[in-house]
């Protein structure tokens, strides 16, 4: 059939209008087309039937207030469909088309039959499936020759209608074949674009994905999800977002299940059963992790586009379900780097803007902030969460909530008592370990224990109960060690021991319970019992470095220095931290800190046994180890998996990372003993300041060339050495936002965790210099000793031990006045610094101020210096000088007992109270 140019032009415009479902234009195009092409009556009536069906569907949706948002609740077993239309609303158009069907070309008749089948399936007629089969019976789908333009969209429509009919008849496998043919055709013809093509393609890909899940073929479902997602990237941004959100929800779950299966079955092989050779790479853990992260981002964007802020008494449970899935997937994939952790926090903050006072969101936020290391914000989230669940508990209507399923709890946004208790337990750890607030830590632990006894007696909560008793014990121990009232200390220590005993009863095979018991007994100077407890810990976990370290310190407290040194060697050998990693894994920075702490104790024992001269070389090696330990962790650098290109985050502007805090401080004036300026200052640590710990320079073997020049030469013994100006490190501080659930500002501040790490790094480096200073002082190399103190002051001027060591240096030079000023500086920084108070009391005693000495020493021994042998010794001397010999004898005997049980290094300075 040859058409005139005018008819061809009208047909092209007509087909374009059909491709866009531009229904108002159909009647005029049909009239003009028939006018210029008498044989076009079939095509014209076909389009008019499309018009009639399309408008009837629109009216039916409006009448029932139906939208595609109904698809948000779709599952493989239940897929929402558009409301059916009345047969009589389209009957006239159907009959008109059927009456002229034989007057068209074979091609027009086939495409008309597809439209008739589509119309039949859209109606509520009892025989609609039979009608569809009748219309499609003589049509080859897919055809041998693939058409183009709108006719291609009609072929896709026919395959989709055929699949939906087979699906309705229960012939699922055959329906999937028809839907898969749609996917193959669309992928093979990427240049075909039209609104109607998008519509029918989406129908087919959506339904086949769900049906494959229904059949339990997860691998096939993932293939279809991927096909849907790849096509969705080509669709308009606002096209069927509700269905996209549903697809991404199920897609995310399917990928997570695949990741779990891979982890369970992966005994050295990443192969996935049923996946082709070219597809295997998509199922490696790294590839799956990235894909899951991407799908999370698309899911969030599509869901938020169709979700609004909930009304009163409503719960935005779909958002809650999404965030729960994302959080669970993050647990599955591992913590990731700092960028990933920060993205998770931002994701939860965005979710908080789509919900209203959700305790579930606050719980997720709390744990995410703790993982990120933003402990100050985590504390706010913890307080808000506990306040909210307490309010919800007061208005709790009945006990029916106790038997709700997790899905029901998500829909109602009701927290289970188990979840509440886990937050309380984690809160106790946060308060005690990260925030140094033992009273709050004890309160959280007690509330958790009450919850367990009241609500969780019939649950398996051994892990929770163990942690509760353990954190209770640590909190009591912290309170005792910081107590200023001597009458309270024994009771607090007894409670701590009792809690650890209960923890061990709950889990006798858990090494950390025995470690904490040993630590507590060691702090109480019950050395023999502590040794038995720590040996029990090592029998259960022989690679635990803090346990070996504690054992070495306990042996040193018994003055068995050779055995303690041997134990250090054994413990270091058990650790693999300082060994080359050949398995692709890296040890954590925390393990490195524990390893370094044990090496420092080893160096101190080496000094004690072999003398100060032989201790210099091991001390030098500690500086090299320090630079390795406090280098940036591999997990803290790199890009986030969630930094997906072409994903525009809603309500989130670009974030620029602020500069990190420096490890060492900047020189400043104002040191109270400084009388001259620094010249030629060392750059030790400046590389670390610039790179957050990555490029520390190493001190030279003589510890002198990298330290500030002292000035003119003179007698080392008698010269008064004054340190130059220096400053404490600038670790940075930032104010909190006014509202907890408002996302952080776009300029990122260092996390509390990173600030604390900087502080620990400064303290360790300063302690290494002070260790060197002590060695030099005992070797009578006073100038070098002062240089080491200067370096320690430049790194951590707020450390009272720096000024205490300076006082010892001046005291060794018989300059008691300056020594006393140094102790005063230490006390200005730490008013209860026991060693400085003891030396200050000694100074008063030597100066004849017995009353002043007694006041200082009596206060010291009653408060934080209760275990200071020096303080008790000098107090005994005070009583002796004032004629109170009985009291003097008691103090001197107690000082002797303390000295005989004193370890080579203080337990609190060497060992972790909380294990990771």
Question: How would you sum up this structure, described in words?
Answer:
The protein is an all-alpha fold. The protein folds into 5 domains: 5-237 and 249-255, Serine Threonine Protein Phosphatase 5, Tetratricopeptide repeat, CATH 1.25.40; 429-542, Serine Threonine Protein Phosphatase 5, Tetratricopeptide repeat (Alpha Horseshoe); 574-647; 655-818, no CATH class; 831-916, Serine Threonine Protein Phosphatase 5, Tetratricopeptide repeat (Alpha Horseshoe). It is 63% helix and 0% strand. It has 37 helices and 2 strands. It has helices spanning 5-19, 26-36, 41-63, 91-100, 106-122, 128-136, 150-168, 172-188, 195-214, 218-232, 241-265, 285-306, 317-333, 338-352, 359-372, 375-394, 406-412, 417-434, 438-455, 462-481, 489-506, 511-523, 527-540, 545-557, 561-574, 589-610, 616-629, 686-691, 752-778, 782-795, 800-812, 816-829, 834-846, 850-862, 869-881, 885-900, 907-910, and strands at 656-657, 747-748. Strands 1-2 form a two-stranded parallel ribbon. Helix 28 (686-691) links the parallel strand 1 (656-657) and strand 2. The longest helix is centred in the last third of the chain and has 27 residues, at 752-778. The protein is elongated and about 130 Å long. The N and C termini lie far apart (81 Å). Mean pLDDT is 85; it is low at 581-586 and 644-739. Keywords: TPR repeat. Belongs to the YPP1 family. This is Superkiller protein 3. Involved in endocytosis. TPR repeats lie at residues 800-833, 869-902.
What's the gist of this structure?
The chain has 916 residues and is an all-alpha fold. It has 5 domains: 5-237 and 249-255, Serine Threonine Protein Phosphatase 5, Tetratricopeptide repeat (Alpha Horseshoe), CATH 1.25.40; 429-542, Alpha Horseshoe (Serine Threonine Protein Phosphatase 5, Tetratricopeptide repeat); 574-647; 655-818, no CATH class; 831-916, Tetratricopeptide repeat domain (Serine Threonine Protein Phosphatase 5, Tetratricopeptide repeat), CATH 1.25.40. It has helices at 5-19, 26-36, 41-63, 91-100, 106-122, 128-136, 150-168, 172-188, 195-214, 218-232, 241-265, 285-306, 317-333, 338-352, 359-372, 375-394, 406-412, 417-434, 438-455, 462-481, 489-506, 511-523, 527-540, 545-557, 561-574, 589-610, 616-629, 686-691, 752-778, 782-795, 800-812, 816-829, 834-846, 850-862, 869-881, 885-900, 907-910; strands at residues 656-657, 747-748.
